Amino acid sequence: METTQMTTTAPAPVAVPAGSGPWQLARAELRGRASVKVSLAIIALFALMAAGAPLLSGLGGWAPDAFDKSAVDPYLGGQPIGPLGGISADHWLGVEPVTGRDLFARVVHGAQVSLLIAITATAIVVVAGTAAGIAAGYFGGRTDAVLSRLMDLTMSFPSLIFMIAMMSVAKDVNRIVLMTAVIGLFGWPGIARVVRGQTLSLTHREYVDAARVGGSGPWRILTRDILPGVAGPVIAYTTLIIPGMIATEAALSYLGVGVRPPTPSWGQMIAESANFYDTDPMYFVIPSVCLFLTVLAFTLLGDALRDILDPRGSRR
Amino acid sequence: MIRYLSRRLIGVIGVLIAIAAVTFTIFYVLPSDPAAAACGKSCSVERLAAIRAHMGLDQPIWQQFWDFLSGIFTGRTMGSGQYTLHCGFPCLGYSYENSEAVWGLLMDRLPVSASLASGAAVLWLLFGLSAGVTAALRKDTLLDRVLMVGAVGAASLPVYFTSMMLIYGLIRVAGLLPYPQYVALGTDPLHWASNLLLPWLALAILYAAMYARQSRSSMIETMAEPFIRTARAKGLPRRTVVVKHGMRAGMTPILTLFGMDLGGLLAGAVITESLFGLPGIGRLFYGALSTGDQPVVLGVTLLAATFIVVANLAVDLLYAVVDPRVRLR
Amino acid sequence: MNKRPLRPVATALAATLALCASGCSGTERPGSSRKNPATANLGAVIGGTPQKGGTLTVLSNQDFTHLDPARNWVMNDMDFGTRLLYRTLVTYKAAPGTAGGDLVPDLATGLGTPSHGARTWTFRLKRGVTYEDGTPITAQDIKYNVERSFSPDLPGGSDYAARYLAGAEGYQGPAQGKHLDSIKTPDAHTIVFELRKPFAEFPNATVMPTFAPVPKKRDKGPQFDNRPFSSGPYKIESYQRGKKLVLVRNTHWSASTDAVRKAYPDRLVVVMGLKANQIDDRMIASEGADASAVPWYALRPESAAKVLPNAEVRQRLLAESTNCTDMVQMHTGRAPFSDLKVRQAVQYALDRDSVLTASGGPAFNDLSTAYMPATLFDGKQPDTLKIPKTGDVEKAKRLLKEAGKPGGFETKMTVSTGDKGRAEAVQQSLGKAGIKVTIETVDPSAFYATIGDTKNRTDMVYTGWCPDYPSGSTFLPFVFDGRYIKEKGNQGNHSLFRDKPTMRRMDEIAAMTDAKKANAAWRQLDGEILAKSPTVPVLVRRWPLVLGTNIAGAYGQTSFGGQLDYATVGLKDPSKSQG
Prior knowledge:
C: Dipeptide-binding Protein, domain 3; 3 domains; five-stranded mixed beta sheet; peptide transmembrane transporter activity (chain C); SBP_5 (chain C); signal (chain C); Peptide/Ni-bd (chain C); SBP_5_dom (chain C)
């Protein structure tokens, strides 16, 4: 089996007892860490929240864009009525000031938008970056030169500035798709460099040479021999870039070039609520804590994965 | 060395031209009309056409791009008659919105962004590196754990949240600092620092946490290298080993990171400037975007790209100085 | 016009509220037992008479659009420019309440002399009035600036000269040595304007910065915007766009020739680019140097909760009405809004009350039941349609069904960035009736250009109109006369309403000689148009400003949309100010 073949050559210098593959080992090691358990629990919670957003807000009884005028005081600039930002049996996390929209419904729908964008953008980055990295590392020569120049060029772009510019230029497009594409566009060189380095070192391993001599075509070698070899660092790196993606979505929405009203996203919610941080602290704290926990969870998980799957490489 | 430098410089210029071309193209297909925006509310068709000609928008895009590129070195003259505009070297275009050359605007705002970036950088290097190195040397102790938990937490805090908490804690409750309002360093160094301290802290907390994590792992890796073991075996004092050998090699990856971060920040920390109301390049850029002030958008993008590529070049050169293993070819 | 500009307004509304302020300290809203806590200072001067000297700080989140008098046509900027930096032929009286709408001579000795049936207007200039370098101000310089305003290089200014001066068609400014023959300057102290058509209200137009003097040798084209040459009580010491503007005394200005400007502070410092909410917090706290500061822009709605319950802060709160009616305007020229029933569905579905809340609540806004603001109805708008303020969704759905759209439809609405909250409230309430609205936000600076492009604009826009002076003739014809629709750069009539009976009636009223009758006719026409619902009137905003504790001589100038009158503002104790 391929996996057993790989154990002898995998980059991870783990002492390998006979009969267990690296993935089993990794899983065993992951299970032993408390931080991993906690972060997986948080991620699972938010993932469930995002996936079941319509269901959950249905349980709460409010649509994310439904106003509730009875919950705010128009004479006080629309402050929520009641303590803690209007938390009540009716509104589980209170309401948005001015509009009286239900915060619980907005937070769960916001999770959907924020996580969807972050994870899709990450997927784009990982697929494009891995493909470019493997191609550059394996084929070398002109392919490598062109791809490496392209990586240098992309990395020289002031990415946030450019993303903001592109988001504000495009008008009649689906904001979520555009934002995903724009974030993805600037993320791929980082992972491509890691994969390229990894591929370079793998290309001249004996088993790859053996496969080549054995008559395997480049496609077969790439998918059967190289790709599994770079999988470890890629997985670790992927987990570590997700927080950056979430933060970028938040930044773009904060600057008002993200999702369109009334669609909620965590970044949009934080942007609006920052103005109420002292008059209605709960409104500000709730989306901030969600963002914080998600970023934290992915960072912890990524740290653990990197330690196990890629103890040396893939660091900037 | 000379050959290396000249090769790199050519590369830098190539990258900048490519970035200029991409930016230019994107904003040429931009649906909004800069002439219409400049023309204002009560705009006649003739007036619009005149402004368009004045701005050079009636020429083909390659001609506009060429005018722009050559204008950087030779300066440009726009319009005719009494209201001729002279835009001297280095001409990055003219902002009709602000009635000023783009270069002048950038140089007017640069001190704000540079003050913000440099002050924050000093703080985050100070705190980030000392925390990271300390944690690395005391690996697996309680101190290490506390520092790293703190770092991972701080790195995950949204900057919006930290900023608001800093404003609330240090301004509203404690009354220690004024609301940030940029004061030039030359006018009053004390007020410059006290007004910027809050934004510095907001940026530094985030970056210090990231640098602490990076420098710790980098130091741990280095300290396990054979040459450190050799140095130890030679009986060198621990201090010398750590500072002269360990830090020197362990800090090189940090240098790359620092180069990129500082390069990016110099051209405007858009979010931080917007959170604290600082009139830096990030704000200029954001304002220009919303008003369709195309020349300024292009100018900021180019300036930012320049900072990034120059910072990368500087980092590579510094590598040769810091790390004896690196030889420039 | 919307946030646009000229609007000599005498607010009958302000007067009625002011009367109430002394007697009942607030206004009652129908259906509400609570008093408006924001309007106690209407018509009053805050802080008494200022002392001379000190530095007045203005905290701003933005830069001026234009300070060049040929280009300055934004209400707030006109206040700042004409009260501090340059003088015009005629200006508004410096007084709170309705009196702020009265015209007084400024550079001129009188309000102008009409002849040829108000086709020719003659102004004589005061003698001994000089610029900041001591050189005398001449009639030729005023003519020169009017000519400059035609230059394609200097866009943005008011177009009254272009609309009324004879022979102004196609004129491109003085750059090629061409001049307007319809402005005559027989000597340095006389200026004569010849108009294309009779214009009895021409003195109202000469309040515009277009009618300020600019000497030819000081003209630097577009760069003049960054350093206007002063004829007013202050001159520019330094101006860093988007960062800071410092004004110092113009020693050549003399109070003896100027009855309007008091020029109390020695210096004015405008700090720009600050965060709006931080400005609000600083003004509320009013600590240290901020005690001698005023905000440039209106209080943000989210800061209302910090201001309204606080009696001390409320004493420093101005909240003059802007007199501009916010409207949801529909493109009546194409489907689906070409159908009256569909427009009425919008009218009935709209929950004006939630838009009002999004706009800062009843303390900072008044609901509209008619197009023209209350000023033009002697203080109170009629409610001819009696639509509940929270809307009538059932009726809206019925109307949609009658229009053959029982399931509703999708449409788009363009709003200025600052109106996003209001737009979301519109979106939400129309959504209940099945009208799904997508919001397009556009930066204020590009907003008018975007909605003025009648071909490419969205079917709905959210914008308003302010009467130029208290006459229906400055409201209804601008908003509803189909003959002034332009394909690009369209303004005012954003519903693209082309209704023959309406236009015929407007011509009839314009020809009336009896002002009282004309007024009554405008009011009636307002209701007739409302029944055809090309636009839905929503609310009239106030302009809330919280001032520092050391500020004196402050009131909202009704003619500048409630902005602080910079002619009279100063400090109680100049020694407490810094800088």
